[in-house]
Every structure is written in structure tokens, then in C-alpha cells.
From TrEMBL:
Its EC number is 4.1.2.14. Keywords: Carbohydrate metabolism, Lyase, Schiff base. This is 2-dehydro-3-deoxy-phosphogluconate aldolase. The keyword Lyase applies. The gene is eda. It comes from the Bacteria.
């Protein structure tokens, strides 16, 4: 097992966030069978978007994260992380960031203890202030599509000028530009380029095409 130094633990969340922001897109994937991660990893790499948020919605998540992390070329994190125990399971499997639908002090603090980036969910001013009190300055805006979308983020950004957002939920290739045009959006999460059925079926060619299209569109929108 690799032992992290204090310096590595201090800089790892910052470097992870910088990497996510550089890619601009975070594929959010549900994996039912951990063996599907092998084909997924190949498609992500071939499609030019070596990033994945594997949600803890299935029992296969920890092993899927491990398989992707073991490749060494995928920036892999865990999504739908609700408890400190899931933080531990994700980090032990190789996740370098954890994403939650809401803001949980216990989850954020455990992620800090493990030296990984936490992206808690926050869609209201009160929730953003709660995240700030925990030392978090980048939050997941979820579900974005039903919570006001880009206009809501723009409004919140006027009050919280030092906060960055990762909108997820209801984002597609069609409205991607509306989100990435906002200076306060660090990256955008979405599942359209990694549909659950295609991942389960190991449709590498189809996944690679979808991922390539998403990556190319994000590159076009880069300021």
C-alpha cells in the first residue's frame, strides 16, 4: 500500500480539482457488474476523456473503481457517496474524489481525513454557506436541470463569488454550452455519454463515439 505524505494529502484535492476543471466534463456512470469497468476504461481513454465518477448506487461500485484506478490513466472518483463508510470504501479502492448529492459534514470531514477532494451537493444559498463553513469552495449543483439550471448558478455566483460549481443532472450535449459558458462552472457532470445499458453490454465502439463527441464539444466551448 502506498503511503501518502502530509504534503501529498494537502495538495491532492487541489490537483484533482484542477484536473477535473481541465477536462471540463465528468462522465457519471452506473456500473452493475464490475467487469464492465474494463471496457468502460478503454472507451474513456480512446474517447479522450479519461475521467469517471462511479456512483455508489450498486454493490459493484468499489470493485469497478478499483479496476479503473488500477489502469493508471483514468481520474476516477465515487458518486452518490452518503456516508463516511462509503468514503473509506471509495478511497480504499482508489478514488481520488467523492461526490455527494447533498452536503454532509461527516462525509466532507472524512474525505478531508483521507486526503481526497469532496464535492458535496448544494443548490441553495443556505446549503452553499453550509459547505463554505466546512471549507468547501466547489460544490455539486444537483439536480441542475430542475433547480434553475444555468440561470440559477449565475444568480448564486453573484453572491458567492469565490464558489465554483459542478452542475449535474439534466445536462446534455444540447445545453452543455449554457453551463460551460459560466465562469463559475469548474466542470459539468453527465451520464449521456456513458449510458448504463451500453456500459453493461460492453459496447466499446458506441461508448467511444459518445465520449468523443462530448469531449470534442467541450473543447469547442473552451474559452
Amino acid at each position: 500500500m502506498t503511503t501518502r505524505t502530509d504534503t501529498q494529502e494537502a495538495t491532492m484535492p487541489e490537483s484533482t480539482l484542477a484536473s477535473l476543471a481541465a477536462h471540463r466534463l465528468v462522465p457519471v456512470v452506473v456500473i452493475d457488474d464490475a467487469s464492465s469497468a474494463d471496457a468502460l476504461g478503454g472507451a474513456l481513454a480512446a474517447g479522450g476523456l479519461p475521467v469517471a465518477e462511479v456512483t455508489f448506487r450498486t454493490a459493484a461500485a468499489p470493485e469497478a473503481i478499483r479496476r479503473l484506478a488500477d489502469r493508471g490513466d483514468i481520474l476516477v472518483g465515487a458518486g452518490t457517496v452518503l456516508t463516511p463508510g462509503q468514503v473509506d470504501a471509495a478511497v480504499d479502492a482508489g478514488a481520488t474524489y467523492v461526490v455527494s448529492p447533498g452536503t454532509s459534514r461527516a462525509v466532507v470531514e472524512r474525505a478531508a481525513e483521507r486526503g481526497v477532494l469532496a464535492l458535496p451537493g448544494a443548490i441553495t444559498a443556505t446549503e452553499i454557506q453550509a459547505a463554505l463553513e466546512l471549507g468547501v469552495t466547489t460544490v455539486k449543483f444537483f439536480p441542475a436541470g430542475t433547480s434553475g439550471g444555468p440561470k440559477a448558478i449565475a444568480g448564486l455566483s453573484a453572491a458567492f463569488v469565490d464558489v465554483s460549481f459542478v452542475p449535474t443532472g439534466g445536462v446534455s450535449l444540447d445545453n452543455l454550452g449554457d453551463y460551460l459558458a459560466l465562469p463559475s462552472v469548474a466542470a459539468v457532470g453527465g451520464s449521456w455519454m456513458v449510458p448504463r445499458a451500453a456500459v453493461a453490454a460492453g459496447e466499446v465502439e458506441h461508448l467511444t463515439t459518445l465520449i468523443s463527441q462530448a469531449s470534442a464539444r467541450a473543447a469547442e466551448l473552451r474559452p
